[in-house]
Amino acid sequence: MLQDCLRYRSLIRNLVLKDLKLKYRGSVLGVVWSLLRPLLLILVYTVAFKYVVRIRMENYAFFLLTGLLPWNFFSGAAMASTEAVRDNANLIRKIYFPRAILPMATVIFNFAQFLLALAVFLPLFFLWGAPAVSATLLCFPLVLMLHFLFTVGTALILSAVTSSFRDVSHLTEVGLVLLFWVTPIIYPVSMVPEAYQGLMKANPLAAFSITYQDILFFGRFPDLWVQLALVGWTLSVFWAGYRLFKWYEPFLAELV
Amino acid sequence: MKAEASVVLEGVSKAFVIRKNRADSLKVKLVGLFQSRHREHQELFWALRGVFLRVNRGEFLGLIGPNGSGKSTLLRLIAGIFPCTQGRMEIRGRVVPMIELGIGFHPDLTGRENIYLNTSLYGLSKQETDGLFQRIVEFSEIGEFIDQPAKNYSLGMYMRLGFSAAVHLDPDILLIDEVLAVGDEHFQKKCLKRMEEIHSLGKTVIFVSHDLEIVRKMCSRVCFLLEGRILSEGPPERVIADYHEFLEKENSRNGP
Question: Most Cβ neighbours (<10 Å): which of B93, B177, B238, B253?
């Protein structure tokens, strides 16, 4: 399956380019739009949690950013992947190509926007005098890679399952809202009662969020458990997605 | 000397699952666990029943038969769009299915972008398409419209571009499903000529059509399908005569 996808890499490229072009062509502000959303969210959350709820934290906006951008990538890709196969039913019924390319292209499209947002916001915040430009930044690419693979695994699972159960996309939507609040994004994990911290770290998205916050914001390495959770979740979700999609793949043209 | 086979089908059957009360959401599935009248009923529809077919390299095979006789299913099996339920299939060489013209075309992309997207669906790399691009554009007679969004195209232009892209892909096995019904006479002639050219290069062509005149003129062998079985096969004259006989019988039975 993976080799097939590699052989069709020009298709992946063209599908991602298509989505990017369709999104940005003809709008005056172009890519600015995709940066406006996280900016607005950060503004709203900062006002709500720093000035209303009064979380005591220096550089709260930057802290938010380190958790929110990765979350946006994951949730955007997960949501879009539920439509990835169904929306392309027309293609699937008329020509053979490795079907896994569809969820894969969806993830890459969202990843591209994530990287763009990082490229714009991170330097800005470092210039602003945010803390912790430290050696931990060196493992940033590795974390990005794990995060990407984890999301591909999730997208493979969701896109395959939605092809036989339509309401999975609604479940995903609700699930994501739930996940957002049990993941330390707008609050640091240290604010959670200690008894629940362990439980929270079992959530793969919490592990990712904590890691991003640790290496980008606090300038430290995440603890061993989080590191293990990160690698463990990534490998198992990717493997599960691969197996499940492979099992579904031959029948997708009949299911959708 | 025995001719080399392009396509070999041995006892191939294809069943589609017809779902009554289809459980296409988790909700319905769950309800079905408790209430039997909501449970999904599955019925099988056999679109093909035990088809034996051997197409040699360089043959121009026509498939004829009334609607729902299994012609398109047969073509899709050969194209690898879905697997067969029973039997064994062997396909040798690169298959280019033309089940629909302009697969993947998007109205907001330009003709140029659509060609690249379309050919990559067939597994071509960017470099390979670069090499073909000029010929595709010339054949399609689309001129400077190539850099216009496809939504500004007339239906004819759209189809011409789609056909042109597909026939320049250098197939070993070309599958054509009733796509010539569109376009003006001039372009139809050109398409037929191009199909003959491909055939004269020693390629295999499998052609589904209701236009018996074209089938008679083009094909070296014809199969007449009915209810998923090959009813008769052989030289065009004879098989088309069989088909006419069948149609007359049908008419007199349905007639007054």
Answer: B177
Q: Do A22 and B17 touch (CB under 8 A)?
A: no
Average pLDDT, chain A: 89
Contact A18 B122 (CB under 8 A): no
Q: Any idea which of A13-27, A63-77, B222-236 has the lowest mean pLDDT?
A: A13-27
Number of neighbours of residue B55 by Cβ within 10 angstroms: 22
Tokens 């909700």, located at residue: B27
Nearest CA distance, B246 vs chain A (angstrom): 30
**Number of domains into which chain A is organized:** 1
Residue A79: pLDDT band by 50, 70, 90 thresholds? Answer: very high
Chain B residues interacting with chain A (CB cutoff of 8 angstroms):
16-17, 24-27, 29, 76, 79-83, 95, 97, 99-100, 103-104, 106, 108-109, 113, 116-117, 120-126, 129
Chains A and B: how many Cβ contacts under 8 Å?
79
CB A93 within 8 A of CB A163: no
Q: Among A22, A168, A253, select the one facing B81 at the smallest CB separation.
A: A253
Residue A164 touches chain B, beta carbons under 8 Å: yes
pLDDT at residue A50, rounded to an integer = 84
Kindly report, residue by residue over A166-201, the tens digit of the pLDDT.
889 999 999 999 999 999 999 999 898 988 888 888
Q: What are B139-145's contacts with CB under 8 Å, separation 24+?
A: B139/B164, B139/B167, B139/B168, B139/B190, B139/B194, B140/B164, B140/B165, B142/B111, B145/B111
How many C-beta neighbours within 10 Å does residue A222 have? 24
Q: Report the alpha-carbon distance of residue B71 to residue B50 in Å, rounded.
A: 14
Expressed as residue numbers, the domain containing A76 is 2-255
With a threshold of 0.95, does the pTM exceed it?
Answer: no
The band of B223, judged by pLDDT with boundaries at 50, 70 and 90, is very high
